[in-house]
Amino acid sequence: MASALLVETNSQPEPFLSDLLFTEILLALQHRKDRYTAAREVTSTIVAELLEEPDKPLFKPPQISLAASRVLARLDEQAWLRYTAEHPSLQT
After folding, report:
1. Average pLDDT in the 12-39 region?
2. 84 touches 27 (CB < 8 A)
3. Residue 33 belongs to some domain of the structure
4. What are the φ/ψ torsions at residue 84 (nearest 5 degrees)?
């Protein structure tokens, strides 16, 4: 589903697709029995946090990854570790 948020890729704004974020979150939560419900709720929480950011509506992918990481860290350490491992911009 598209939203009013935009992602800057290759210096061009593109629609933010929450379904793509949902898929990444679902993979991070694959160990949970409630992974589908949890992934939908986490995705909604991430989008809500992005809407609070001063940079809205245009984000760079690392900003979205960082918001996702913060939400996952609060919910599930294993999911946070898996998500962080898949996103080089989060690795320090």
Report:
1. 95
2. no
3. yes
4. -60, -40
pLDDT digits (tens, 9 = 90+) for 42-63: 999 999 999 898 877 899 999 9
What residue type is assigned to position 21 of the chain? Answer: L
6 in a domain, yes or no? no
| CA dist., res. 37 & res. 24, Å (int) | 14
Q: Which residues pair with 59 in a beta bridge?
A: 7
Flag whether 13 is in a domain: no
Distances from the Cα of 52 to the Cαs of 9, 74, 78, in angstroms?
21, 18, 26
Q: How many CB atoms lie within 10 A of CB 4?
A: 9
Are the C-beta atoms of residues 44 and 36 closer than 8 Å to each other? no
Residue 56 lies in a domain: yes
Domain count, the chain: 1
Per-residue pLDDT band at 1 (split at 50, 70, 90): very low
pTM, rounded to two decimals: 0.89
